[in-house]
Amino acid sequence: MMKYLFKCIAILLISFNCYAEPPVFEILIKDHLFYPDELVIPANTKVKLLVKNQDATPEEFESYELNREKVIPGNTQAIIFVGPLKPGVYPFFGEFFPKTAQGRIIAKESGD
Amino acid sequence: MLLNSVILVLREVLEAAMVVSLFMAFTTVSQQSRGFLLKAILLGLIAGATYAYFLPEISNWLEGIGQEITNTIIHIGIYLCLTGFLWLISSNIVLPNRLVKAVMMAAIILAISRESAEIMLYISGFRSDHFLMQSVLSGSLIGLGIGVSCGIFLYHLMIALKPAAATKFICVLVVVVGGSLMSQATQFLIQADWLPSTEPVWDSSHIISEHSLPGQLLYALMAYESTPTLSQIMVYLASLLLMLVVIISGRFSRSLQHD
């Protein structure tokens, strides 16, 4: 019985390990611009974007290509899960200041 | 800035205007007063202001996905109200029934709270910049005007029909809006990582781009995505199906009562 229980726990731990925390990438919003405006992330991997809005004004992170939208109030930060993405370029923009706040995520395979 | 504000506000207003005009038309067709709908709009604006005010705190809930979960709850809430509305009117429980009024009011309050919160937050960002504020305010007013006009147009389109046809048309639109709300809710859950993110099933961006005007209008009407995922499509279809089942079972229970 104990052996069986241990096996179950081991299998669970292994499967939890598969769902390990995704890598975190930071994007800053300052003066209605994204820094960096070009972010390279690994392809076929789920990543966590940490978007820090350093402006006093709110901004909405939006991307049609990534199917993402999130309002980030002034002087706060937000997390947005992205991917796993096929290799390629995925533009994003700030909906509140779209003229300046433009950026793109580039998903690259590790060997590229 | 002006054009940007017009587009931003219009996008938000269109979605809420759809829900409001559907119910406005329904009250007109069933010859009832519309006072309670105006009350719902006002309450929705108050709820929206509250949501916008507490958004920084709400965003931090659940380790940073509070906003997605709140939006999901709002969307599911509107969907349930719309489904309840369909059941009531299919089983011939029409106005002035209090329950019919309550589901209509709740749907409007929820729809307006979410859409207006974003607009209020956007405009409030310019409070320290009087120069930009002027163009943002005029742009927002134009956007609001176009959005409300679209709602009024839809309303007149519906009430121009004969009452029976109008009710059918309202039901069809309620089903379309319902599916779209659930599709968006699914998207929020994927963004929050509560649902797995999978590859898009198709890419129709070369036919209708989400950046284009038709794409934006289709988004407001039926949550058009050029690259939808399987879970979004499944939830969309299941929500439509559930509403159709509710309409049919409502009609069935009505026919049983008549027998």
From TrEMBL, chain A:
It comes from the Bacteria. The keyword Signal applies. Keywords: Signal. This is EfeO-type cupredoxin-like domain-containing protein. The keyword Signal applies. Gene3D superfamilies: Cupredoxins - blue copper proteins (2.60.40.420). It comes from Methylophaga frappieri (strain ATCC BAA-2434 / DSM 25690 / JAM7). Residues 1-20 form the signal peptide. Residues 19-107 form the EfeO-type cupredoxin-like domain. Pfam families: Cupredoxin_1.
TrEMBL record, chain B:
GO terms for cellular component: high-affinity iron permease complex. This is Iron permease, FTR1 family protein. The keyword Membrane applies. Pfam families: FTR1 (PF03239). Keywords: Membrane, Transmembrane, Transmembrane helix. One of its GO terms (molecular function) is ferrous iron transmembrane transporter activity. It comes from Methylophaga frappieri (strain ATCC BAA-2434 / DSM 25690 / JAM7). The chain crosses the membrane at residues 6-29, 36-54, 74-95, 102-123, 135-157, 169-190, 233-252. Belongs to the oxidase-dependent Fe transporter (OFeT) (TC 9.A.10.1) family. It is found in: Membrane. It is a multi-pass membrane protein.
